[in-house]
């Protein structure tokens, strides 16, 4: 019996799953008992966390990209044909080309997308670092900045949950190094009653912000931006003036998820332990695509992918389950331009940020270099 496995999405999660399955199912792939197909949206694979360093000139753009074909195991059938419709009842995926891909097992790894349009004026009035074009624009804006009020505006939901704290602390240090220490004021906004969704991280961030003189305003759910007046207003009725507005825009899942009726806002209802789509026995969901209430981060995708690899390969080989996902997440946090910390946690263990150090910053930079080993499933 031949097992057809289709993976929708060629980002980090989909790539790790494909490579891991090739190794675990090496015999089955070699003998034609298993076929692994990845449907990607582009021939290029981007290291998304590297975008954080673009505004400060700390990474070269070329370091962010590799050909997806070179990252994937050569035994994977890779097709640039973004999914247009996913039929979980008929066990098939239709690509933008119109081609139909039938499957025995499906892995949905469609990721997330930026949703600037959810807030009037946000796209026109704010800078961001969550895609390459915006990161370049932000770098130019920072280079030209000579002083004034900076608002760093965080919206939910969003991926890379510690990135808003990182950009704030890195920008503060960057501007001080430029000799602007007395010429700028940073105000950080967050939609709930603390500085981060994870309470221990929020508790850690408060003294860090206070020590640097960074202001913050919680319960700030963005209603609109007025680019002409240079103001940002919250649903709660507060208005902040700005000279430079940096936003973490709201995110939503892929359009194909909504069009296929698989989940509101593009998030697929997913069992927190099995990572199976709720109501399915052969459809796994991984990475940003899930509606699991944990961090939408690269490490989340990696640990989820490892779980899916073990379970899916064992289902093919022995028809049984291997283990459940425990909610594990690990994130480095840049606390400036040359210091960092980290957090790890799971469903039962809360995060406990350690004191920042230069060594931890170096570990983060080392991981930036080792990312491609991670995507290849070698790390």
Structural class: alpha/beta
Overall mean confidence score, pLDDT: 96
Numbering strands along the chain, what is their spatial order in the largest sheet? Answer: 5-2-1-9-19
The CATH superfamily of the largest domain is known as: FAD/NAD(P)-binding domain
Radius of gyration: 21 Å
CATH topology of the largest domain: FAD/NAD(P)-binding domain
Cα-to-Cα separation, first versus last residue? 32 Å
Summarize the structure.
This protein has 379 residues and is of the alpha/beta class. Helices cover 30% and strands 25% of the residues. It has a five-stranded parallel beta sheet with strand order 5-2-1-9-19. The protein has a four-stranded parallel beta sheet with strand order 13-12-11-17, with helices on one face. Strands 6-7-8 form a three-stranded antiparallel beta sheet.
Structural features, described:
With about 375 residues, this protein is of the alpha/beta class. It folds into 2 domains: about 5-110 and about 255-330, FAD/NAD(P)-binding domain (3-Layer(bba) Sandwich); about 115-250, FAD/NAD(P)-binding domain, CATH 3.50.50. It is about 30% helix and about 25% strand. The strands form 7 sheets. The chain has a 5-stranded parallel sheet with strand order 5-2-1-9-19. Strands 13-12-11-17 form a 4-stranded parallel sheet, with helices on one face. A hairpin with a 4-residue loop joins strand 7 (about 90-95) and strand 8. Helix 1 (about 10-25) runs parallel beside helix 9 (about 300-320). It is globular. The chain starts with a strand and ends with a helix.
